[in-house]
Amino acid sequence: MKAVDGVRAGDIRALARLITMVENQAPEAGEALRLLHSYTGKAHTIGITGAPGVGKSTLVDQLAREFRHRSKTVGIIAVDPSSPFTKGAILGDRVRMQDLCQDRGVFIRSMASRGAWGGLAETTADVITALDAFGKDIILVETVGAGQDEVEVAKTAQTILVATIPGTGDDIQAMKAGILEIAHIYVVNKADKEGADLVAAELEHYVSPIVEDGWQVPVVKTVAIENRGIAALAESIENHRLYLETTGKMAGTMEEKARHQVLAIAQRELMGKLLKIGANNGQMDS
Amino acid sequence: MTGERRIRILIAKPGLDGHDRGAKVVARALRDAGMEVIYTGIRQTPEMIVEAALQEDVNAIGLSILSGAHMDLFPKIMAGLKEKGMDDVVVFAGGIFPADDLSALKEMGIQAVFRPGTTTQEIIDSIKANLS
Ligand SMILES: Nc1nc2c(ncn2[C@@H]2O[C@H](COP(=O)(O)OP(=O)(O)OP(=O)(O)O)[C@@H](O)[C@H]2O)c(=O)[nH]1
Ligand SMILES: [Mg+2]
Fold first, then answer.
1. Cβ proximity of B9 and B123 under 8 Å
2. CA distance B6 to chain A (A)
3. What is the tens place of the pLDDT at every residue in A50-71?
4. CATH T-level fold of B8-131
């Protein structure tokens, strides 16, 4: 398949177009993804979630730089909500990632949620597959950040960062339990603001009794706009990857993810066929 | 859901002027017309705009400019798009342009120019017509 060959050859335009095809759930998308799957498994996918305005995009921007310093190539997927009424969307996360544009080792793609719940678009996992097959070492996924239970990312990424900030009254009692549970790393961003130590201490207190399968969830304070704490955060992410690898969980999460994804694609294809049959028989409005 | 197509459009502000109110109004109007609008913010170089358009695989680009530097910046953007094989992307421009420049802008490949007083509906209609 030509689209897949282009991606494998490192052609950025081919990658961008393939992502559009996947995102539109075009008829050839399933076949392309099946072909791409055999080239995946190298990337480390990191999800970043948290309420609106906590600094997810700024963190992604700084983390991308940090990983570039460590000679890793980076793919970024930033998801924003679609309007349920008009289906339109404003995708504005790139505003915080301006300078990354100049770096050929970074590829950024904005995605509209297109009606999906849970903080991602229905096809975000497929776009990750494309970036992985393209050869990206690190894939950063920013969720919608609607402050809802954005737990979909837990099925899609290997390392989950949950970001919060001081002084919003959005303390951990108020944070949705679902969100807290999916975290592998807590980030207290805007640590330049008053109350950061308090939030960090509360989170420490929340996590300290919980050592799940040998992973102690760290709490990392950052000031993303000043690039403070970012190296430590990257270090924690790296530690989590090592943890996943040494415990054999990395292979497990990938298998789980692949199963999830294959099922979703099959479901979509079946749905498409059913709709077509229905339309042909005139039994269903198209 | 299957096989759905959406208009993806990049709204960018090349050059050094820092006023993006107009660009934001247009971005919201296009969203309300059902488009997916990628907004990249102010002070974009031609290279940044071309790169963002490439990565986002947009169907159209809207350039908002008030500084008067369009005759310098736009040709660079159009050349960059061509170089990346994106000649099929529809480019339009909004802002302040002397009447004398309009034919040169057309020649460059800018499909539509919206000067002050244009309604958002006119912009939407024009983009849709250019993309069909
Ligand atoms: N004081 C302070 N401000 C910050 C910090 N990090 C980010 N900000 C600011 O917080 C605002 C929101 O940052 P974003 O990165 O856009 O936040 P986000 O979570 O991606 O926002 P949404 O995508 O809209 O949910 C911006 O004005 C940033 O400059 C920080 O460490 N300290
Ligand atoms: Mg953001």
1. no
2. 8
3. 988 999 999 999 999 999 999 9
4. Rossmann fold (3.40.50)
